[in-house]
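Follow-up to my post from last week.
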Amino acid sequence: MSAALTRSGVVAGALGGRGRAGRTARRWPAASVAVSLTLLALAVLAVLLSPVVSEQALAQDIMLARLPIGTPEHLLGTDELGRDVLLLSVAGSASSLVGPFCIALGSAVLGLLLGSLAGYHRGVTDAVIGRWSDLLLALPVVLVAIVVAGVFGGGYWWTVALLIVLFSASDIRIVRAAVTEQAALPYVESAQVLGLSSRRIMFGHILPNVLPLAVTNMLLNAAMAIVALSSLSFLGLGVAAGSADWGRQLADGRAIMADNPAALFAPALLIIAVACAINVVGDWLLPRLTIGGRR
Amino acid sequence: MIRVRDLSVHRSDGAEIVSALSFEVPDAASLAIIGESGSGKSLTAKAISGLLPEGLSASGTITFGDLTIDLAAPEAEWRGLRGGTVALLLQDPFTSLSPVHRCGAQIAASIRARGTRLSRAELRSAVERSLAEVQLPARVARQYPVELSGGMRQRVAIAAALAANPALLIADEPTTALDASTQAELLELLGTLQTERAMSVLLISHDLGLVRGRADDVLVVYRGRAMEFGPAQRVLDNPAHPYTAGLRASEPSAEVRLRRIPELAALPLRADSCASGHTDCTPEHPAVTTIEPGWWVSCTDFGGRGLTDAETTVVEDVPVPEPRDVLLRVDAACRSFAGKQALDGVSVVVGRGESVGVVGESGSGKTTLARAVVGLERLDSGSIEFAPRTPATSTGARARRARGVRGRDPRTVQIVFQDPYSSLNPAMRVDTMLAEALAVGKRPASDVAELLSAVGLPAELAAARPHQLSGGQRQRVAIARALATDPELLICDESVSALDVSVQAQILNLLAELRERFGVSILFVSHDLAVIRQITDRVYVMKDGRVIESGATSEILTSPSHPYTRALLRASLHEERTA
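User reply:
Got it. Predicted complex:
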């Protein structure tokens, strides 16, 4: 008997996934959630401040170029054009964060719309929307961005619009899967028997139940969009040269890494920190958004 | 001998859900725990296997031979104990197996849990032996759970649970999700395995028939407290505690129809002093009276409630003629799914004001029929016609908007589903839900309160969301929603099968009341002959997509002419009375 007791292992099949052991949702320690929320609050503050500081931040003074980190009055030093890295980073937050936020929000809306239609109606609608999202996923982002820049002359908001469309593919797929699952449930059938319109059932009944998933994916997308938009700016496809933007700073900072490493690392760390914070908050938020803590 | 001492379960706010249960299961014997949902019987099972959900904590001990385990032990300590000592068999074979692993791998996982190192070939033959033990062919090892029937899946779950050689098998409603005949086979199998392995079984069930037939001892719990303990058959035939008696009375019978099924009223738990004059009698530890060795009952100071006249009045069997005023006529309905004929020329008639039953096992096509009537399923051939009192106007935007699925008028027919958990939108408040349904019937949202009171719910629940309601309350909301459009026909698709006997009795009585009050006709689909007996006047018996017998419920269930009906009835009565 006692020999049997020391044996390890769980009867996975028979025990099912109900117990403590089976609960796999990732739990972030409260401290990291608090830090992430603080970071995001600071990021929002920076975005609000950026129009105020941008004039001063963009003022060039070649005489002050490439001051190293720790210089009095220029804590993070200056870049090649003599602009203060700290101020530039605050000013750059708007273009680095507002765009990604629009991308995440826009693609979530597109995803909810198309994903609901595909998941609820199935059939031809589903096939068309499904192939459309396949197509979007197959497109190489940078290549398309170059083409769009070539055709429409580029620019920040064109890039944002392009990324909204490209990012919507993952939203469409996630929402479609969730809606398909919900659509087979008796509560949806009850609504159908009541003769409610499919628009009402899709957006009034099913949508609130898939929204938590869409919101979480939106936050994930926001993090990815920050990186994507920064990469495009780094390549010169997003914002114009010389503007305040973390991706742009990253590209320009490479050249003066030896003189002032902060010109490169400040925007890089900001991108990583904000992206991570958004992910942690997203994970923390999902179970809280789910009504009644459903399974 | 397995002993559980002072098992308590507490919520994180300190509230006690299970209070100081103590019981023992002798080797190779079985103990059943019975009670309503919310009585704490499932939590007891989870506490013993160390699987309490988050926010709950256990205290007490469990003793296997010379080893005593503290039930408050943290997860890490439990991990080594499960499988080898305690295995858990859950109700639903559809969710208890992993859908992405082959059955063989899932059994192999628990064989490996025994710790002995096995070669690949040895493991394979061990899996085959496990499968053979539960009477499954070796090919099942290579199959995924989705490829198997419910009964076969539950056999795989049993094989996985037993592969680690547990000393105690906890079976939490192991057959509730299955058909009567599959249920009987599985119980037979569990019985055989138990004797062969000299394993103890803790059976958690609300099915008194099953407990009477399968368990040696029974422990009756109410609100987490032990009410009565003793030999299963004798306790259930001759309950000493009013609560046990109440549980028994609320079980419907297939033999006689009662005017009203006895409902189990909430028992007031004695507050402070014991009027019976027991010394040392507190609500937490009520005094225990021994009736005979091995049979005791806790202080019954709160007394029981006598049965009312309606609850003992047997409804006279009167001949029921075919209805003349026909509301629904299903004619030669056919429907097949992937080559399987779910409906094969089914003709059913429901008269105005009638209550008609459709009975059969799963796969008989009864649910397809119910769904086809409300339009959730299309027919390959045949017709479904309604003769509503007020024919809907066929033109105009308003009329079109009030159209349900496949042209059904939502004001003619509505449906109540089986599972009260998925049939209400978790994101919607009760009043929003009902107001929306009322609007379809062109009734004002202010009728919500009236609707709630019609189904016996307090008006305060209007602002509640489904997760705040109990199973019985949810089913009442589902009924209220169906009635909101003033339908002439209400389809009940196994609407009480997922509920405990006591809640089932309440819902059946409610349906009977509503039928009388609103004159709504009912088409009640069920696998349960006793439920059909209590609620319907006429019945259709279905098998393999065909109606094999029909007529007055009292006649069919007293003297069935078809051998299949006879077999169904035998299975149901057998379960109810003996074994």
